[in-house]
Amino acid sequence: MEKEYQILSHLQEQEHTSQRKIAENTGISLGTVNLLLKKMAKKGLVKIEKLDARSLKYILTPRGFAAKASLTCRYIKQSYKYIINVGNTVKNISREVQDNNLGHVFLYGTKDEIYQILKMFLQEEKIDFS
Q1: What's the whole-number mean pLDDT along residues 88-106?
Q2: Between the CA atoms of 80, 84, 85 and 86, what dihedral angle is there, to the nearest 10 degrees?
Q3: Phi, psi of 85 (to 5 degrees)
Q4: What is the spatial distance between Cα 69 and Cα 22, in angstroms, rounded to a whole number?
Q5: For 71, what's the count of Cα atoms within 13 Å in the CB-facing half-sphere?
Q6: Three-state SS across 31-42?
Q7: Rounded to 10 degrees, what is the CA torsion of 54, 9, 86, 112?
Q8: pLDDT, tens digit, for every residue of 18-41?
Q9: What does the alpha-carbon distance between residue 48 and residue 127 come to, in Å, rounded to a whole number?
Q10: Which of 15, 21, 72, 111 has its CA 20 to 30 A from that of 57?
Q11: pTM, to two decimals
């Protein structure tokens, strides 16, 4: 589903595109893009029009927009569940830190989105970290 979402997003952003451009911009192989576009056309998510003997036009249909919105919603729900699980894990760690009088937590790695989420939960639990 993630690959279909990437293709639908690309088609929404760039109406005049090619399978090769979709593959380059999404990181999906050209063969997979071809297969998924045909599959999405059968589902009515994408309309394929022949411009000339060598060129095709891919149009995101209203059903395609709805599918993209549904996939976006599903992604947001999964992300929210993930963040809740991280929060619960941090709460369990904070109990262990407090029960064992450990005092300090070390975060190792890049300071990306996950780091920010961990930092937020650790601050909420009043756990010292670095």
Answers
A1: 80
A2: 100
A3: -65, -40
A4: 19
A5: 16
A6: HHHHHHHHHHHH
A7: 80
A8: 899 999 999 999 999 999 999 999
A9: 56
A10: 72
A11: 0.64
